[in-house]
Amino acid sequence: MMTMFNFRSFGTRLFLLFSACSLCLLIVFSLTYSKRLTEQTNSMLGDAAFKNVSQAREHVELLLKGYDSLSRSIVTNTDIQRLLDKKESNSAVRAINDRTITNAIGSIYYSWDDVLGIHLFSLDSRLYSYGSSTQVIDPDYASQSWFEQIKKSNGETIWIGMRQNSVIDRNEKGPVFVFGRKLTDLHKSHSIGMVLIEIKPAALQRILSNMNVTDHTTSFLADAKQIMAHLDVALLQTEPGITLPLIENETSNRFIAADEQIVVSKLSANSWFAVSVTPISDLTVEVNTIQRLMTGLTIGLLIVSLIFALFVSVTFTAPLKQLMRHMRLVGQGKFEEAPLRKSFKETELLTEGFNQMVRRINELIERNNQVSESEKIAQLNALQSQVNPHFLYNTLDMVYWMLDEKENEYLGNVVLALSSIFRYSCDWTNGSSATLGEEMEQIKRYALISQARFGDKLKFEFIGEEYGLDLTLPKMTLQPIVENAVIHGIGKAGGAGVVSITVVRTEQLLTITIGDNGIGISPDKAAIMNETFERAVPSSGSSGVGLANVHRRLAYRFGTAYGLSIQSAYGQGTQIIISLPFQGAQSVHREVPL
How many angstroms separate the CA atoms of 276 and 51, rounded? Predict the structure, then answer.
């Protein structure tokens, strides 16, 4: 049992991997589905709450619009406008006027079923009330805050809100909805009194009840400071318990705060807000039930996946164990093929690959025995074919001194230049680097030999060669380019022309331009060679290979931003531009893999 479930065995790790993957997939699926279901449920309930509050706001606005019409009918009544502000010294006439005002209020009172009382105040402290026959007017009504609020208004309807009891009638017990308005003379535009109206709040309470989404939803009307209408009259005139800036700044919105979903919609008739507060726990009851079902389903699927993982592990590892036994035999020097048994296609391919490897090893062992003697002979011949280059240097020096003795200075210089070129090309004691000054000296020797061949038809120009002579660059950078200009540029043009080497230095860049006025190359070929430089891959043709090698060496040392580029026009010559980094008197040397 311990051997079967060894952690380092392939079967155990396959079982654990498959089980872990199944568990992760199940967890991700469960969490994703649960999260999506929660979001959808919350969104649906949130949309329902938002819709309820929006509809309730519209109904409240219609209700307040009707109440505003009620107060307007009192303000514009002709008898009230004519008699309320009238000063009458005759007591009989004054009694008739008071009765006329009372009758006007009464006619309006009986035209509304839900009006509890209408109270009219004149500027000289006269009070006209119509309502319950048992009403007892509070003598201190003038000191109440609602009285001052209506008195300071500009003639618009002042919404006092719901109250637990009447604000003016001491005998009226029970919730009332209160609002009032200042009376203004319509002809002279001055204040003549005030009106206070108390309404049964049943209609408003039905609207608030319809705002509830669940049994624990709380719905109310509030301004920025206090609750103005609520199903629970004990909460009237208390703080709404919600962050006030959210209510003040939002016209219609929903948000989550303190584990509650809050929906707010602003009324256009006044500065009130319709507010619905629903606990989040009410929104997730159905989600919790589904989550429990998902947990049970996940556990069941996990058990099934573990059994399946064990079956796959045992089935898959059986042929592998057989293959491992034959691999141990190979390790012991017994190159025997493993028997091929039917299994997974991948396992069969692996076994066949192992057998091919065994057959190939046997063939290589046999071949190695046959060719080992031939390789030893070839190595001996290679060692014997090596020639000491110093023999060539000494011979060229001897030719130079013989020409010097015969006073043939020109040919002597040519031979000396050739000897120096060989020495420079074969001397790698300092590695693969050289200074620009050493490279320029090598070019001057090559120029002397080339002019010996072409005569005065070939000329070399060196411009700005004093710049950056101590700059370090790969050895044999310039000669292949100059040689390419002489052979393929000037040579194909008849051997007559000018090869120029121009050195230009900026603050951080040294540019060496090697140009010729030879035959040139076509724009298509120049574009192909530039593309070859960018890929650092040799193109076809001997010249392309040499230039590409130079570019690759420069790019390896200094970075891909540096190297060669070609500018050419057929029949007008070619320019090869070498870009190198330059800082002060020393170059920047860094090797960057291509």
Answer: 11
pLDDT tens-digit series, residues 189-209: 888 899 999 999 999 999 999
- How far is the C-alpha of 594 from the C-alpha of 589, rounded, in Å? 15
Please state whether the predicted TM-score (pTM) of the whole model is above 0.70: no
More confident residue, 535 or 174: 174
Contact 300, 293 (CB under 8 A): no
Contact yes or no for 279/287 (Cβ under 8 A): no
DSSP 464: S
| pLDDT tens-place string over residues 42-83 | 677 677 778 888 888 899 999 999 999 999 999 999 998 888
> Mapping DSSP to helix (H, G, I), strand (E, B) and coil, where does residue 360 land?
helix
Q: Mark out the alpha helices in 220-284 (DSSP H runs).
A: 244-249, 280-283
What does the pLDDT look like over 356-385, one tens digit per residue?
887 887 777 776 655 444 344 434 443 443
* Cα end-to-end span (Å), the chain: 54
Rounded distance, CA 196 to CA 176, Å?
Answer: 12
- Work out the burial of residue 588: count CB atoms within 10 Å of its CB; fewer than 13 is exposed, 13-18 middle, 19 or more buried: middle
CA angle centred on 583, ends 581 and 589, rounded to 5°: 50
Question: Residue 25: in which H helix or E strand, if any?
Answer: helix 10-75
What tokens appear for 228 in the block? Answer: 């103005």
